[in-house]
Amino acid sequence: MEIFYHVAIILVLVIATNVVYAKFTQIPLAFYQIIAGFVLSLTPTFHHYSFQNEPFLLFIIAPLLFNDGQQSNPKEIGKSLRSTISVAVFLAIFTVLAVGGLVDVLFVPLAFPLAFALAAIVTPTDSVAVDSITNKLVVPKRAMNTLDHESLFNDASGIVLMNVALATYSTGQFHLGGGIKNFLFVSLVGAAIGWILGSLIVGFRMFLRGLDVDENAVLVPYNLLTPFVVYLVAEHFNTSGILAAVTAGIVHAVEKDNLSLTSSKLQLVTSSLWDVMSKVLNGFVFVLLGLTIPTVWSQIYKADSSNIFVLTLIAVAVYLLMLVIRFLWLFLDIPKLHDTGKSKTKDAFIFALGGVHGTITLSMALSLPFTVNNQPFPFRVEIIYIVSIVVLISLIVPTVILGLILPKAKDSITPEELSKAQTGMVDYAMNRLFESNEKVSDVEAVSSVLQSQKGVEREVDVHGVNKLIVETQKQELAVLQKHADDGEFTQKEVDIYERVLEKSSANQDFFGYFKSRWGRLFKKLKRKLQVHKFHKQKQEKLDKLKEKGVDQFQFRQTYFKMESVGYQAAMDYLSKLSNPKNLTNINIVRRWYVERHNHFVREEQDNENVNMSLLIRAFQYEYTWIQQELAAKELSRDIAKELYEEINNAELMLMQTTFSEEE
């Protein structure tokens, strides 16, 4: 129960940081999550948080890297295999040798093998952190691809090299041949296990689909279990579970053509689920990072506060050396990327700064044993402190420098443009529906469903809508007056209706809904209070009529008939008045009239009983609008693609709902 409580709290923080980031995107999301973790560490429950390395690698890192693998481009990896091995393996080995030598010189009390263990820990890079830092920037494609490919495989290199260094320290002996043999075994066999298991899992998945099993209930959980099974099997054979998970993910990417034969519903559910999982797990990673670092700092301060300054300088020196090594590795074209001139220098600098360290690095540091040969592990806290400082520096420096030297990414579609297009599309479909001869309640139910396709509400023309309401009410009363002139209603009845109408609509704030997203709840509450007040006023009128000897039932019937006539007159007027420029205002007033009409006749509209054939026709109207706007060059193809995808998903959900109801 306690672990559920902890996970729930971290989940809340992940959600909260995403909300904050949606409003303040100037700072990378990772920093918000680290800060949230730091704040959480101040609470009594998490004040001395104990990091569990194995569950972290299994439940967070394995699925994250598996998803990275299945989202990768196998053809690109194949083409750049030589450069990938160069940066993920040979660069990692060279970095460990160089940084280990530097640490051995600067941190004299630290044993030689442990210096190299520290260097191995800070070697792996974090693609999640890089993406978080660069998602608002335009990064050269070659540099970004190199960073992505490096982060897929250099985790295994760092872990294996750390284990070799620790084994050397514990035994007091180092055999170059044995170290190389162990490295190749853990890496190659781990990758082979991932490839074999990945292929078997994909094949069995296709077999299950051939049995006509329930895809969502069987194949989706089956896919989600894949990284955990692969990781555990690889670790059981003392190989790299991380590398096995990545390789299994790449197999899924290779078999994408075969998997695309599965149903569109399965693809939609699976991709959406992995997308959500990836974002949540990434959030977990950085909240845990922020949660862990204060504990490490506290431990080092209690051990010897005078060492903090020296250890910080060592961490800075380690980061700077790695920065230089990474720059020269690409600048000298050791991976054989064949860049030349200015582009090569820029790409090398970006590649150097892109060596961001994060989750794997921290988990490796915290996985250091507490004892070796029945003795306390020497300088364990100091090593973890140096690593945590390197992680923070590698996050902060690229955020500042890359933000200055790289251009800001311009979204091909801005939220405002998409919202405007969504509103235009929905308003067009609603207008066409209201122009049809369908039952008004059915049209209104469909219109309510279509409203959900709109994005964030744009600024509403409050003055224009108020003016339109006044004009519509004048038309409504003019038609009623004509009926009175023809003898269908008495003049007194029309006067009473006009006074009630004025009282029911006077000083109403129809636009609280549109002024603020939070105003929606208050709007509904206010409308209910106003309706209650209106019915109370109407009942008082009827009671007075009763006192005067007027037949209350007869007047009620006449009153409802007048409202129906006025309502129809208002809807006819709005239909004649509508044009592409005023559709939003027209639909606002229409919705108010429909709600008023339903309250008058005491009929609550059931939005769940939507006319499905009418909704399908509405989708066709939306397709028509997109085609017309494209032909008129009023709509970009990127926005049109987004709108088409929205309608397709809506139709898919409609068909799924329809079939489930029939069953």
Kindly describe this structure.
Helices cover 78% and strands 1% of the residues. A two-stranded antiparallel ribbon has the order 1-2. Helix 14 packs across helix 17 (380-405). The chain has 663 residues and is mainly alpha-helical. The protein has helices spanning 2-23, 29-40, 53-70, 74-79, 81-106, 112-121, 127-134, 141-171, 176-210, 215-236, 241-254, 256-259, 264-304, 307-331, 341-353, 359-366, 380-405, 415-435, 440-451, 462-485, 491-505, 512-515, 519-547, 552-577, 583-600, 612-631, 637-662, and strands at 371-372, 375-376.
Instruction: Going across the biggest sheet, name each strand in turn.
Output: 1-2
Q: What is the residue-mean pLDDT, rounded to a whole number? A: 78
Helix run count: 27
- Overall, the morphology is elongated
- What is the percentage of strand-forming residues? under 5%
Distance between the termini: 38 Å
Largest sheet: 2 strands, antiparallel
Q: Pick out the low-confidence regions.
A: 506-524, 603-608, 659-663
**H and E string:** HHHHHHHHHHHHHHHHEEHHHHHHHHHHH
Counting helices, strands and paired strands, the structural category is: mainly alpha
The radius of gyration over CA amounts to 33 Å
Overall strand count: 2
Helicity, as a percent range:
over 70%
